[in-house]
Design brief:
The protein is mainly beta. Helix content is 10%, strand content 63%.
Length: 222
């Protein structure tokens, strides 16, 4: 049997070990991660129905502030496709012929998307459910519209392409919920349904485009 001094020494060692362990937890530094994201999405204008799916993909980077909280950004290349009646097409004065009335259109646009989101993990483990919220800034690089229009009293179908690059700051509110699973010591995979709610319109007709879809995200811890 151990003597009383020996038992006291062991008890002191255990107390010191617990203090060191707590200090290490407190000193845990934020960690970086990066990865790839991609998926498909459906878009619509003012609840008029969704048409063909668009695709998106790009890079994601994040800062894991704590076990449950992270901040993410990245660069994504996105293609949105949508339909709208002419009453929701609101071009700037002078940008369209004065004798032309847009009755409806099928549109698509190519965008560079820069999101800024906050990610919250519901559990403290790597695996589990999470949610995100944030905003996206768009840089539109190309827009194509197929107009059903009336020009000087005549019904016509007109195809137009616009290639002027334009930035739209804080265009959408983004919300998502998903599940994350580790597939190695440093690799993770996420399945992430999302919705993007427009804060402002984009394109030549200032269209309020809402999108929803699913992202597949692969990340690697640094």
């Amino acid at each position: 049997p151990k003597t009383e001094p020996e038992l006291k020494k062991e008890e002191e060692k255990q107390i010191i070990a617990n203090v060191v362990k707590k200090d290490n937890k407190k000193k845990r530094k934020p960690s970086f991660y990066f990865g790839l994201t991609g998926g498909a999405e459906l878009s619509q204008v003012k609840g008029q129905g969704m048409t063909r799916p668009g695709l998106n993909g790009g890079l994601v980077a994040g800062l894991q502030v704590s076990k449950q909280l992270a901040v993410e950004t990245g660069v994504q290349f996105s293609q949105k496709k949508y339909y709208s009646q002419g009453k929701h097409f609101n071009p700037k004065a002078g940008s369209m012929p004065s004798n032309m009335t847009v009755n409806s259109l099928d549109g698509s646009c190519s965008l560079v998307e820069i999101p800024l989101t906050v990610k919250y993990n519901f559990g403290k483990n790597k695996n589990g459910f999470y949610t995100t919220a944030g905003v996206s800034t768009y840089i539109m690089t190309k827009e194509k519209n197929n107009y059903q229009a009336t020009v000087s009293g005549q019904d016509q179908q007109i195809k137009s392409t616009y290639s002027n690059t334009k930035a739209y700051l804080a265009t959408d509110l983004n919300f998502s919920a998903g599940y994350q699973q580790s597939i190695g010591k440093k690799l993770n995979i996420r399945v992430e349904p999302y919705i993007q709610i427009p804060l402002k319109g984009i394109g030549v007709g200032t269209m309020p485009v809402m999108s929803t879809g699913v992202h597949l995200v692969f990340t690697r811890n640094k």
